[in-house]
Amino acid sequence: MEQLSARLLALSPSATLAMSQKSQELKAQGLDIINLSVGEPDFNTPDHIKEAAKQAVDNNFSFYTPVPGYMSLRQAISDKLKRENGVEFSPAQIVVGNGAKQEICNVILSIVEKGDEVIIPTPAWVSYFEMVKLAEGTNVPFLCGQEQDFKITPAQLESLITDKTKVLLLCSPSNPTGAIYSKEELAALAKVLAKYPRIIVIADEIYEHISYCGQLTSIASFPELKDRVVIINGVSKAYAMTGWRIGFCAAPLWIAKAVTKLQGQYTSGCSSIAQKAAEAAYVGSQECVEVMRQAFERRRDLIFGLVQEIPGFKLTKKPQGAFYVFPEVNTLFGKKTPAGKVIADANDLAMYILEEGHVAGVSGDAFGAPDCIRFSYATSEEKITEAMRRVKECIAALA
Ligand code: PMP
Ligand code: GLU
User: Fold this and answer.
1) The pLDDT of residue 344
2) Of 3.40.50.300, 3.40.220.10, 3.40.50.2300, 3.40.640.10, which CATH number belongs to 48-283?
């Protein structure tokens, strides 16, 4: 007899990972699927990083690691934050975990309790909402459409703040929209937040280096928000290291201590070998990051142009960062497939495109934007071109 907890039953599976799993299953059946569902760089991890991991194996980095991560790695992260972001976090304020994903969840579980409200400008990454649910907090999503570049305005933010607001969860560059908050936009949000000293900002900067408009400003750099911004980042996207599972939070000391306590009870410190590789990523040459960024920018330009040619796909502005396009597709709802099935929503559309066009994307539903669909362009230009050709053909067949 199954006896799952209410907590688990309330949780939705990750839509991004579910779609990727489905496309892998279809591939295993011999179908030629182009997987644009999961967001991960298609590049191999750079050689100098792999070398550091090999050395760590040979040098017997095989013992339990400190719960918050090796001091040398936390120092390298502290230096990176100062050098690239102009913010001061001592190694004691940094906790390394099993991907940025674990650290976001650790922070939420450490500070959010039943009834606390978490403001999430949407479209937003699928896992945020589920993490807040796990912590028994209340999601306060606010849909920011294309007409406002998918970004929340200071007035909108202020209108959502109540006595129960605990956290603002901000992701820039954004998954799934690619929107980036400029320095001026962040300053205006910081001005609002300055009036509410209890609110903690979780700033997810995992796509920091995949920017097509220059160096990012971190909201942690505004003095009025001192000691209440948690930066989330990691090596997955910038260094093509999704499988190594290293991310971090840089937080006020009391949050870093809480995260360490939590992590110490349910996962311990993360992989020794992966940590040594991540350290090499942060202290080594940053040339590889720029080479990959340039490739993403070319792909962004390519896919943006191809999306314009698909009738019923609306994407007015080039995404400024990350590696996703998130067109609005709601004018296609109600149309019929050649087999006579009605496309009721973006879930149906994503499934139709997968089954008929053999291209995997993710419905906007799980991102809090049911009128949209997401495609990752972290793949070759040939695959992007072929994928969009297939999508266009599928869409043209709708009546
Ligand atoms: N935040 C966002 C917005 C993401 O898209 C991802 C990608 N999975 C993560 C965090 C987590 O990254 P990772 O756990 O691989 O470091
Ligand atoms: N962040 C990526 C995505 O949105 C990886 C999958 C996941 O962890 O959600 O596709």
Assistant:
1) 97
2) 3.40.640.10
Q: Where are the domains of the chain?
A: 6-44+288-396, 48-283
Handedness of CA 171, 66, 110, 194 (dihedral sign): negative
Cα angle for residues 346, 349, 353 (degrees, 5° grid): 140
What pLDDT is recorded for position 189?
Answer: 98
Q: What is the pLDDT of residues 82-117, one digit of tens each?
A: 999 999 999 999 999 999 999 999 999 999 999 999
How remote is the CA of residue 249 from the centroid of ligand 1, in Å?
12
The CATH architecture to which 6-44+288-396 belongs is Alpha-Beta Complex (3.90)
Rounded to 10 deg, the angle between the 272-283 and 71-85 helix axes is 30
For residues 297-320, give the mean pLDDT.
98
Percent of the chain past pLDDT 70, that is, above it, reads: 100
Kindly give the distance from the C-alpha atom of residue 68 to the centroid of ligand 1, in angstroms, as a whole number.
19
Among 127, 172, 246, the mutation site with the greatest number of ligand 1 atoms within 8 A of its Cβ is 127
**Closest residue by CA, ligand 2 atom 9:** 16
For residue 42, what pLDDT is reported? 96
Which bound ligand lies closest to the C-alpha atom of 38?
2
Contact 377, 41 (CB under 8 A): no
What pLDDT was estimated at residue 179?
A: 98
Atom 1 (ligand 2) nearest CA: 39
Picking from 116, 110, 84, 100, the residue whose alpha carbon sits closest to that of residue 39 is 100
Q: Which ligand is nearest to the CA of 243?
A: 1
Q: How far is the CA of 206 from the centre of ligand 1 (A)?
A: 6
Tell whether pTM > 0.70: yes
